[in-house]
Write a structure and sequence with these properties.
This protein is α+β, with helices and mostly antiparallel strands. Among the domains are: about 100 residues, no CATH class; about 140 residues, 2-Layer Sandwich (Heat Shock Protein 90). It contains eight helices and twelve strands. The chain has a five-stranded antiparallel sheet with strand order 2-1-5-4-3. A five-stranded mixed sheet has the order 7-9-10-12-11, with helices on one face. Strands 6-8 form a two-stranded antiparallel ribbon. β4 and β5 form a beta hairpin. α6 runs parallel beside α7.
Length: about 450
């Protein structure tokens, strides 16, 4: 997906390039026209000077005029030529620079004093720019029209255009770089409010803020207000849903406890069969209630976590609690978690995850439990191990099923590892259950990097 920055940069590059190319073309055209007019003025001056010195002899023959003061008229094929035609006297005079060639002037009727400018092929097959004028010169018999043409090598004009283009090229490139840099600076300054908005959204995602603080640019303030409104509505809806689920679960737990007590009473009266059914029903319903209560407390997504989990502190709190139980006080606990490690998981969800793993290990361990979190190339790896009997290989895949209990003699609801699996699904954690090589159960969970 193309970013806004990339689009602006591409547009800036395109507009700057097209603008400078167009501006350069206009400048070169203006220079070419200016240079061409200067050359035409020069040719017009040569025609005027030639016309001023034209003379006829007594026989009416046109005399050779002195060349204008420009040595190029005297050098063969120098690129500057004059040619004078006398149609009445059927004679033609040429500058020494034409040597043995003549300008192939078009045979068209022209009125005296009118200037004609055109290009044609001159000496050595090179294009020349020609300026031509018919003037009336005093002859023995009266005024006689004489055709004067002065030509210059057109390559000189074309070369002047290229010379000018090459001369301004470094300045055009420098101007292009300056405009691009200014466009990037303008873009950076213009996108600064978006960067601030993005940074504030990251604070919300990382649970360091619960709303966009602002203020923002006028164009973004309305968007920020709407986002804050949505965040408030979402937070209120989540709290309401969790509260209702918790109220429902707690509301059902009391009647189920009474039902279990009634089953105990019936058992004492000799109604063992009915008591067993009621007790099983109460325990099953209570397990579901506990499961839904635990699910209600789990964040719906990593972005909705209240904070990051302090792994060492939470785990030590759980271990201290389990050590006070009958099974936990006799076990050896091996603990290896960095003191300052925080993981991108809601603290309550991390407590549920680690608590269920450690409760399961406490239930089955014979003498020892190992818990460790270490960094790896893909993130942080949590490993919980015990030296209990382990799990048959063909039963490992069933451990995350709700209510799955491999030994009904052990207390519990069979929901612990299912809750671990649900928390892992929310946060995208990789979970692997297996057996230790030396015997016992092993839970391996991979957390993404912070």
């Amino acid at each position: 997906m193309t970013s806004i920055r990339r689009r602006f940069v591409l547009i800036a590059l395109l507009t700057v390039t097209l603008s400078l190319v167009a501006a350069s073309a206009v400048l070169i055209h203006i220079f070419g026209d200016s240079y061409s007019r200067r050359v035409q003025d020069e040719l017009s001056g040569h025609i005027t000077r030639l016309a001023a010195v034209l003379q006829f002899n007594a026989d009416g023959k046109l005399l050779m005029p002195p060349s204008p003061a420009d040595n190029r008229f005297l050098t063969p094929y120098s690129g500057l030529y004059w040619q004078i035609g006398d149609p009445a006297g059927k004679s033609q005079l040429r500058s020494p620079s034409l040597f043995d060639e003549a300008l192939p002037l078009p045979d068209d009727a022209q009125s005296p004093g009118t200037i004609h400018t055109y290009r044609l092929e001159g000496p050595e097959q090179r294009d020349v720019m020609v300026q031509e004028r018919v003037v009336l010169v005093a002859a023995p018999e009266g005024k006689r029209p004489v055709r004067i043409a002065v030509a210059i090598d057109a390559a000189e004009i074309d070369a002047a255009r290229w010379t000018f283009a090459l001369a301004i090229l470094p300045y055009v490139v420098a101007l292009a770089l300056f405009l691009i840099v200014m466009s990037l600076a303008q873009l950076a300054f213009g996108l600064k409010p978006f960067r601030q908005l993005s940074a504030d959204l990251n604070l919300i995602q990382n649970r360091l803020a619960d709303r966009l603080p602002g203020p923002y640019a006028k164009e973004l303030q309305g968007l920020a207000d709407q986002l804050n409104h949505l965040l408030e509505m979402q937070s209120a809806a989540i709290d309401k849903a969790r509260g209702r689920a918790s109220d429902l679960a707690h509301g059902l737990k009391t009647p189920l406890t009474i039902l279990s007590n009634n089953a105990f009473t019936l058992r004492e009266r000799g109604e063992a069969k009915i008591a067993a059914e009621l007790d099983w029903l109460a325990r099953t319903m209570l397990a579901h209630v506990n499961h839904e209560l635990a699910r209600a407390r789990i964040a719906q997504s990593p972005e909705q976590r209240r904070d990051d989990a302090h792994a060492s502190k939470i785990t030590l709190d759980i271990i201290r609690t389990l050590k006070r139980t009958g099974a936990g006080e006799t076990l050896a606990w091996d603990f290896d978690i960095p003191d300052t490690l925080t993981l991108p998981v809601d603290p309550h969800d991390f407590r549920e995850l680690v608590g269920n793993l450690l409760e399961n290990a406490t239930k089955w361990a014979r003498t020892s439990i190992w818990i460790k979190i270490a960094g790896s190339g893909n993130g942080w790896r949590l490993v919980v191990e015990d030296d209990g009997p382990g799990v048959p290989e063909d039963k490992l895949a069933d451990l995350t099923r709700r209510g799955m209990r491999l030994d009904t003699l052990k207390p519990g609801s069979g929901l612990g590892l299912a809750i671990v699996s649900e928390i892992a699904t929310v946060y995208g954690l990789k979970v692997k259950f297996g057996n230790r090589a030396d015997g016992g159960f092993r839970a391996d969970i991979l957390f993404p990097p912070n």
